[in-house]
Amino acid sequence: MTEPPIGPLVVLEKKWPNNLAPVAVDIGGSFTKIVYWRPPYAPTLPEYVVRDFKDSFFSASAPLKPDPSLAVDISEGSLRFLKFPSSRNVEFIDFIRDTKLHHAWGENKMKTICATGGGAYKYKELAEERLGTVFTQKDEMKCLVKGLNFCLNHVDREAFHYNFEEDKEEFLSVDQIKSTETNSPFPYLLVNIGSGISILKVEGENKFERVSGSSLGGGTFWGLAKALTDIKNFDEVRELSQSGDNRNVDLLVGDIYGGDYSTLGLKAELIASSFGKIAVKREDAPPSDYNKADVIKSLLFMISNNIGQIAYLNAQTCGVEKIIFTGGFLQDNSYVWSRLSYAVQFWSVGKMKATFVQHNSYLGSLGALFSGQNDKGTKEKTK
User: Which of 22, 33, 330, 351 has the smallest number of Cβ neighbours within 10 A?
Assistant: First the structure.
């Protein structure tokens, strides 16, 4: 079967190294993400394996939808990306064993699989026993940084800003993401939003340090959303966030002053207090005119605005101007992109922009894939 054109292309100078396994995995709490070197034949995969992307080169029976912009060409083949619910891990391991899919690249290629994420330890023994391969665990943050650095250095249109005024992505070339002073992506501030947030200052390929963090993250949003509404999954969040109106819940500057507070340069539409309208409501007032969609929108704004401010303040402290946001909280969520972009631009008075990346979900597994070369004696360094 002839594969569709793939772009943007990333061409490295040599073919896939013989000392690297062609598959790596990032086992998270919700999803397992796999990056793999395109096998010599097109396998039919289980129905629970999903992709968010288009134009699969796999057979019609395989429910994979690869996005050409997320297939990274490397000389004689391409890297591909897939994911499935982590609850299916044991089932997928058995599928690989039964179909001998791990021998698709040759039996000697899969002696070692690099794995990262919280589940790397949990499934190590099972994977080694059933697949006859060594499951090498890799540090999660090192893999995240390595995967991100690979994308920033080699994938055009990987990074993007979000224009919150026009609701659209503004993609950047590899050259545009480079700093003028260093002719590289470095230095930058990496803000990884998971259950909480971790903030890293990245100064080189393998040089980074954790400079800050917060318990206020995606887990905070999800916990409050469940506590305040009856929603059960993130699909509902996306749907509700499109229809909600936070102004029914939040107290705005205009609600307090009747318009702009020009002395301090505060616009009337600026949020003065998240959920403030509920707080100041009189006990004898009629039922409030807000619904769960309004609550979700307010929560999204509250968490995103605060993370944006924390990121900006850390960038100021660290003396860097480039802020890159990653993590599951951002995945396919333009409202979060919009609010983080607004917050960074607001607090920096237009001097900084929030940056996001297309391969956001797969940075850990990409880093694990390329970290295999360090098993031959090269050690990763952190500051």
Answer: 351
Domain residues of the chain, as ranges? 23-143+363-376, 159-246+292-357, 250-289
Both tokens of residue 143?
């893999």
Give the CATH number of domain 159-246+292-357: 3.30.420.40
Distance, CA of 119 to CA of 84 (rounded, Å): 14
Cα–Cα distance for residue pair 259/253, rounded to 1 Å: 7
Angle between helices 124-131 and 89-99 (to 10 degrees): 20
Whether 368 contacts 32, CB under 8 Å = no
Please tell me the distance from the alpha carbon of residue 226 to that of residue 98, in angstroms, as a whole number: 40
Mean pLDDT of 337-362: 93
Comparing C-alpha atoms, which of 271, 226, 268, 220 is closest to residue 249? 271
Q: Is the pLDDT of residue 328 over 90?
A: no
Which pLDDT tens digit goes with each residue over 369-379? 888 654 443 33
The two most distant CA atoms of the chain are separated, in Å, by 75
Q: Which two tokens stand for residue 373?
A: 């070369």
The string of pLDDT tens digits covering residues 222-238 is: 899 989 998 887 778 87
Closest CA to 251 of 264, 269, 263: 269
23-143+363-376 topology per CATH: Nucleotidyltransferase; domain 5 (3.30.420)
| Positions of E strands within the chain | 23-27, 31-37, 72-74, 77-85, 112-116, 134-137, 159-163, 168-171, 188-193, 197-204, 207-214, 251-252, 271-273, 323-326, 354-357
User: What pTM was computed for the model?
Assistant: 0.83
Fold match flag (23-143+363-376 vs 159-246+292-357) = yes
